[in-house]
């Protein structure tokens, strides 16, 4: 799974801070593009969950993991610093459109993406954010990585709801979930790794 690989790499970079200095150099413009795409995806996810009539989505409203507002605050801060905020990129728009189509077809598949996206931001994103903050933001703590409570506990609540929902979902829907991890890696990975 790519996020674990990124997590291990970022953790190693933290340990060997000086040795990898030349291999990874984030820039403000690239990071802002990353934030714009993530805001677009989070806006899409949160809108789908909030507006859907499908009862399955009701369990995933107001989880405390919502991040669109935090990303928006970060982008406002960058704008205030004179950084031009671009439009979402093609991978960001494509992935959001894919999520919309998926949400219409299958709640179980959409919710697998939902969980994997938040999981990746909690597990690997915080490590990466620390490195970015240290290298280009003078240690500024990003709103994107602040939650209403302990992120791991909030994620645990989502996981418990998914497991509960899995008990009442048709078996055919559940069989798709392992394959989805790879799909999610390919979909969102394009947003994260092409910067």
From TrEMBL:
It comes from the Eukaryota. Gene3D superfamilies: Heme oxygenase-like. InterPro entries: Haem_Oase, Haem_Oase-like, Haem_Oase-like_multi-hlx, Haem_Oase_decyc_pln. Its main location: plastid. Keywords: Chloroplast, Photosynthesis, Plastid, Transit peptide. It is found in: Plastid, Chloroplast. GO terms for cellular component: chloroplast. GO terms for biological process: heme oxidation; photosynthesis; phytochromobilin biosynthetic process. Pfam families: Heme_oxygenase. The keyword Metal-binding does not apply. One of its GO terms (molecular function) is heme oxygenase (decyclizing) activity. Belongs to the heme oxygenase family. This is Inactive heme oxygenase 2, chloroplastic. It comes from Dipteronia sinensis.
């Amino acid at each position: 799974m790519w996020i674990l690989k990124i997590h291990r790499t970022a953790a190693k970079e933290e340990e060997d801070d000086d040795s990898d200095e030349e291999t990874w150099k984030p820039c403000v413009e690239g990071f802002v593009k990353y934030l714009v795409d993530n805001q677009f995806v989070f806006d899409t996810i949160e809108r789908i969950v909030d507006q859907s009539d499908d009862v399955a989505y009701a369990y995933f409203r107001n989880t405390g993991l919502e991040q669109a507002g935090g990303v928006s605050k970060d982008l406002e801060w960058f704008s205030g610093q004179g950084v031009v905020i671009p439009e979402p990129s093609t991978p960001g728009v494509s992935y959001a459109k894919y999520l919309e189509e998926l949400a219409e077809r299958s709640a179980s598949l959409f919710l697998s993406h939902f969980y994997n996206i938040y999981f990746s931001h909690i597990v690997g994103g915080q490590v990466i954010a620390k490195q970015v903050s240290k290298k280009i933001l003078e240690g500024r703590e990003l709103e994107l990585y602040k939650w209403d409570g302990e992120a791991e506990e909030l994620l645990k609540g989502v996981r418990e709801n998914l497991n509960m929902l899995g008990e009442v979902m048709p078996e055919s829907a559940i069989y798709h979930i392992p394959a989805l991890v790879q799909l999610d890696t390919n979909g969102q990975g394009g947003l994260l790794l092409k910067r």
